[in-house]
Amino acid sequence: MKRSSQDSSSRNIPEDRKLYVVDSINDLNKLNLCPAGSQQLFPLEEKLQDVSTDSGNGSHSLFLVGLIIVLIISLALVSFVIFLIVQTGNKMEDVSRRLAAEGRDIDDLKKINSIIVKRLKQLDSEQN
To answer: Model confidence over 7-46: pLDDT tens digits?
Structure first.
């Protein structure tokens, strides 16, 4: 009956407190401050099991948090690269349009130059 009251009280104690309570009781037992009947509220196997499950869950949650952070950072980098590609494409279109327009202007200037040269040759030949 004493064991069942200890079990029900152990369910009300948070997980991180269980280890503290067990360690404190064991320390008191080592100092012989507690009577022999109150030794080990929790079995040693339960203490070891709690330690192994807590460390496993902590490392898994830490791994998941790290993985989520890495995925968010990589998503941000990919979005930034896509943005840069689009911006570069727009700039290249602008430059190619300007080059085409300047090419047409150069062709027009060449035609005007050739007309002027022909006219000057005609005037030169009329004067001679």
So the answer is: 555 566 566 666 677 777 777 777 765 455 555 555 555 5
Q: Residue 38 has what DSSP assignment?
A: G
pTM tops 0.70, yes or no: no
Question: Tokens 């104690």 belong to which residue?
Answer: 13
Residue 10 neighbours by CB under 8 Å, 6+ apart: 18, 41, 42
Pair 21, 41: CB distance under 8 Å = yes
86's tokens: 């689009």
For residue 50, count CB atoms less than 10 angstroms from its CB and return exposed for 0-12, middle for 13-18, buried for 19 or more: middle
Burial group, residue 21, by CB count within 10 angstroms (0-12, 13-18, 19+): middle
Please give the helix or strand (H or E) that residue 23 lies within, else none: helix 15-30
